């Protein structure tokens, strides 16, 4: 009897969350799938069951080059955020010795995450622009005599902004994994004669894998679906899957956008499934 | 004493390299923000880049003129209200869900995977899906209906995961003690559970407010006719070419910092009070 009431109270407690997910996550995603088979003209979307949207999407060479470009952004951002995130987390977890300092420095890394992404992107403009700080500095130092054009509105700027925005997504889970590593394992490795680098390679990296996997999932999915960084930082000169979807939305070609969205969703889910083989998320909390 | 000798232990050379790397990382995080902060005080004839052409509050004044930047006041107040609603709903619903997840129930893993899915589904898909849904059933998208729902799909996963982390480390014997002393379920929650998880709930509150306040992609197709602040800022990036953009950046970043400081301050006060009681 008692377990019956407690079960009932569990259902009562979970209902609000379940309802919101149903109405604003599950049904909308199903709507996208349904609409991806619909037809449209200049003014309306028309209920139908056609494969035209997918045929057009998958048959176009533009789509493939856009996917390639998006994967390139995701891969580059992933490599840089991983290197930076691991190094920063390693420093915080193993080289900062007092808990207070760990918390303070961790907060210093975290605070920018709580401010506007768009503002953080814009803030690169005075730094990278043609007459920006970096170009002025390089010219004054005599390193270059023409301002470098590739700094802003380029692939470089997109990846730089992505790394800037999302490095934290790597720092937090890797730091979390590292804090759980039993310190006696590291002492044991040292006592057994391992050098610092060997300890890092055979003890710390393997035990940080769950954090690395979670961070990778975050960074890769967010970059795969991004459109605003690409639009702002490439100055409209580059494309990504998300940007393509947002352009189709702008042109009111909703069924075409929906078909692109379904393909993007499948791609992202495949990547995540592959990464989830490395980690059991529920154990990591 | 032990602590003292430990800190005096010689640091390895790698420490200094890593510390330098960390310092560069912090510079990388804050440097650009600092530049637009300085440039927002650009003189009246100054441009979007250095050098500074004098020093003025001109661009901050400009913010409040309708024709210069569109509807800053209105979009700010909408974002503020939306953020507060999202915050309250997220705190209450995540706390309830956290309590529910302390026991196994049928469908618990479905909810868990929905939360994870909600986190990894690209934001533009949520925006598109809700936009389409409202379009088909002919509801008018509004910032306090469709955009609210879209934001909740983004804040709930964070709220739920934080609650998991909290309750995984929560010792149930305190509640048992309360119940043995005759406390009702609600009294146990009010006098035992809430004070213990309070600081984490403040964390959830701050998280959900700032995530909503800054959310762009999920608002894009769901805000309806009236813009939220991030939409307004985004619009400005394409047609405003004066430092008023930086002034807006400075003001809204300053506001975010204020919210963070408020949350951290509250947690610190709660901790201290708890310490005094104990």
From TrEMBL, chain B:
Belongs to the binding-protein-dependent transport system permease family. CysTW subfamily. Residues 76-263 form the ABC transmembrane type-1 domain. The chain crosses the membrane at residues 15-41, 82-101, 110-137, 143-167, 188-211, 244-270. Signal peptide: none annotated. CDD domains: TM_PBP2 (cd06261). InterPro entries: Bact_Polyamine_Transport, MetI-like, MetI-like_sf. It is a multi-pass membrane protein. Pfam families: BPD_transp_1. Keywords: Cell membrane, Membrane, Transmembrane, Transmembrane helix, Transport. This is ABC transporter permease. It is found in: Cell membrane.
